[in-house]
Here is the input.
Amino acid sequence: MTYVVVIMDFTASLRLIHANFFFVDIVGLSDTSMSTKTQIKKIETLNKCISDCKSFQSVPIDSLLLLPTGDGCCIGFLQGPELPLLLAIELHEKLAQYNKAKIPSETVRVRIGLHSGNCFLVNDLLGQRNTWGPGIIYARRVMDFGDDGHILLSPSLAEDLRSLSDEYREVIKPVHDVVLKHGMTMLLYSAYGEGFGNKKHPEKGASMRSKYGEEILRLQKTTLYPSIDLVLSVIDPEKMIVEHKRTYEVVNTSNEPIKTVLHGIATDVDIPDINDMNINVYDEKDRECPITSINVDKPDVKEFTTQFSEPITKEDTGKKYTLQYAVEEPERYFENAFLIDCQKFNMAFKYPTGNGIKRPELLEINQETEAKTPSKIVPEISTEGTQEIIKWTMEDIPKGKTYRIEW
Here is the structure.
């Protein structure tokens, strides 16, 4: 399957663009028992059905981003946010007609993820313009939660559409929270109605249902973080493996002891087993905080609970715990969203010089608009041998604040 990537003639100063993404995947296409001929026919059928959709044909070619993905495709619309949903609904109707006269092995069934976000114009190996970035990656993550027939939406796109009309509000329904990268959670939405979508909740979403909603409420009532120290260290620049080390100072403001901590880790690469991440949790006395349960162990999401060596009570002072693990970061960014108020946040980034890694930039993220603003916080820069260390210090950070570094 081939696609021509068509983009508008942007100048070098406009390499960041916003689009509304439609990400579709043929369910079961990678089944090894399926013949290559059948696989090709299914891909061609999907392409034909998409190209025949009025919502696709109505958009000028210079307002589309087209990317092949192996089992499907990703389409970015540079126009209105409703276009990905209209295309998903129309595609479901066309595939339903196609599948009517087919035996089960010949039917084409899909799952779809929709998102509104940013992407970048980049040069590929042949020097040709292509697109890449968080908007595309996010749309795929949304799709990956789906099962056969699901049309899933990110909250940014779903809330925009639900605010446009009562009709969209009727067909776009919230599902449940899922865990994203670095412990972030997302309220997943599903679109369904007569002849399109899947009313059932996604099985993956159900098995990956986050406990963070309940945990945030508990933390806001019982816990203060006087300080958080975060150190990100590039330990393998070629594979971009980054060690994460987060140390929390904990103060219990309730009358009930704090015995456990819930952790969530989401990654940009598939990690088959939680043990492959070399997770280590320990307290201020270097005592291990053992994992007592694993709630989610999916390739890109881990959620687990650890237990303190001794409960933290209201009278305790100087109590800390550290979460440490290593993971590939091919996208070269990290975001930290504050779920509760924090008095002081120290963040450091360590990396070897001379390996093509640019000096990291600190950005502030607006969670409602996803807009990025360069931070005015001046970093402290130092060196240790061949490593450069960039440090930032933030104080009196309210819940909801989000910082991002890119390198």
Observations:
- Helices lie at 36-52, 54-57, 83-99, 134-144, 155-164, 166-171, 203-207, 212-222.
